Task: inverse folding
């Protein structure tokens, strides 16, 4: 599919039509499902300009994260290994540093910044068509485990903590399964167009050259909330309980079943050995979720 086909305005913009609209400046300009690599680079560059020139009156630190993501997505759309792409990754890194140093930064901004920062080298390798080797995967796992440790400091609200843990749990689980998982950008996860809301997703796996968008929650969702033909939904808590029952023949005793699994995944990512029963539980959980990804990929053609 061409960039023109992926442009909501039919590629009618300042680049193609005299006095056309500025590419990328409309808040709802870019759809969430395509990879950044498949979108018009001019539109993605327009997002950089838009975020750079439109301050956020209430949460400037959130805009810093949006700017970082805009730079990453633009870099991904550039020719593999280009110096310009490297410069934009460097810009993203600097913007994330400013987010971490922002006085009184909102916990959502800090979490989003931490997740992107952990994956930044992963995105760099993808853009350059370079392998992401085992040592780099180990470092990514350690960074994600550190984020797990910081959740209690980010927010005191149990529901927010649970949401962060679920996102990190799925990330660590897919890393454990050897699947190429990337967190979703602001465009992918928090689209501003209500018409695209059912396609929003937390991240994706690249499998067989195809993007598999993934959305996860602690348990369930209303059928109308997401387009489940386009986005794989993982009910993390329910899946954790299923894996525990199938691996060990009993339900999780602790009410914080999702939290337990995430702590185990984080411990393992730090290089710690799991107890035999815990390892069996995580192995079964890995098998279930990775099979869900493979099966859903088959439905996408």
Result:
């Amino acid at each position: 599919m061409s960039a023109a086909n992926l442009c909501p305005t039919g590629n009618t913009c300042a680049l193609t039509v005299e006095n056309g609209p500025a590419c990328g400046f409309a808040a709802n300009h870019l759809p969430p499902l395509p990879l950044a690599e498949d979108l018009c680079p001019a539109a993605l560059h327009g997002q950089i300009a838009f975020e750079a020139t439109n301050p956020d009156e209430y949460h400037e630190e959130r805009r810093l994260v949006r700017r970082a993501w805009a730079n990453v997505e633009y870099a991904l759309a550039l020719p593999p290994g280009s110096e310009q792409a490297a410069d934009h990754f460097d810009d993203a890194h600097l913007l994330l540093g400013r987010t971490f140093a922002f006085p009184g930064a909102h916990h959502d901004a800090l979490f989003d910044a931490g997740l992107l920062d952990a994956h930044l080298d992963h995105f760099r390798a993808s853009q350059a068509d370079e392998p992401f080797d085992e040592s780099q995967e180990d470092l990514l796992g350690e960074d994600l485990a550190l984020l797990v440790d910081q959740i209690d400091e980010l927010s005191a609200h149990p529901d927010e903590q649970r949401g962060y843990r679920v996102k990190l749990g799925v990330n660590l689980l897919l890393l454990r399964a050897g699947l190429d998982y990337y967190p979703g950008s602001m465009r992918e996860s928090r689209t501003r167009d209500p018409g695209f809301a059912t396609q929003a997703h937390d991240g994706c796996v690249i499998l067989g050259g195809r993007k598999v968008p993934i959305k996860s929650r602690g348990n369930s969702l209303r059928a109308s909330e997401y387009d489940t033909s386009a986005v794989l939904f993982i009910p993390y808590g329910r899946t954790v309980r299923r894996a525990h029952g199938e691996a060990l023949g009993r339900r999780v005793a602790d009410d914080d079943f999702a939290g337990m699994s995430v702590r185990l995944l984080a411990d393992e990512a730090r290089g710690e050995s799991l107890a035999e029963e815990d390892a069996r539980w995580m192995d079964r959980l890995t098998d279930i979720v990775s099979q869900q990804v493979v099966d859903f990929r088959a439905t996408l053609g």
Observations:
- Residues 1-5 have pLDDT under 50 and may be disordered.
